[in-house]
Amino acid sequence: MDILAHGLWVGVGAAWLHRHRPLDRRTTVLAVGLAVVPDLAQLLPLVYLALFSPDGWTVLLAYANALPGYEPAMSPVVTELTHHLHCVMHSAFVAGVVTIICWIWLKRFWIPLLGWWSHILIDVFTHSADFYPSPVFYPMTYWGFDGIAWNTPWFMVANYMTMLVAAVAVWRRR
């Protein structure tokens, strides 16, 4: 799923959850932030490249708008960094370890982590094996479910229409 959709879905989810369990603004903002961080983190090497390389912005834009099989050519270092950052940030194993550490430290589940967990769960089913499959059990395995590609036009329309219906339903019930 695209970065904006991750943030919007968590925003809708937070509004729904707020009806059942009051959430403060900080918790909501952190949850939405953690929903978009996995995709932003993997862009860090490309942002660095964009800032310090003559063709960096071109590569960053080509990467952000790439279709399966049409990713831009990048140096091996940048390719490996983006790949491993993607794997780490989309791993339920890694998120589970972070969740356990937070739970031990705070003595409770930290609600903003639901943003990260939602990102992982959604991406498992909205990434195809051809285009950044989500390696749910990384670093034990690179296996990822072969879902529907999030950037398929009909799926993007359906996703945003469903999100709109969900947002209206949550808003109307307030």
Question: Keywords for this structure?
Answer:
single chain; 174 residues; mainly alpha; 7 helices; 67% helix
The biggest beta sheet, please? none
Tell me how many strands there are.
0
Please count the helical segments.
7
Described by the principal axes of the CA atoms, the overall outline is globular
Termini separation: 28 Å
In what range is the share of β-strand residues? under 5%
Which parts are unreliable, with pLDDT below 50 for 5 consecutive residues or more?
A: none
Structural class determined from secondary elements: mainly alpha
Overview of this structure, please?
It is a single chain. By secondary structure, this protein is an all-alpha fold. The mean pLDDT is 91. It is built from seven helices and no strands. It is globular, with a radius of gyration of 17 Å.
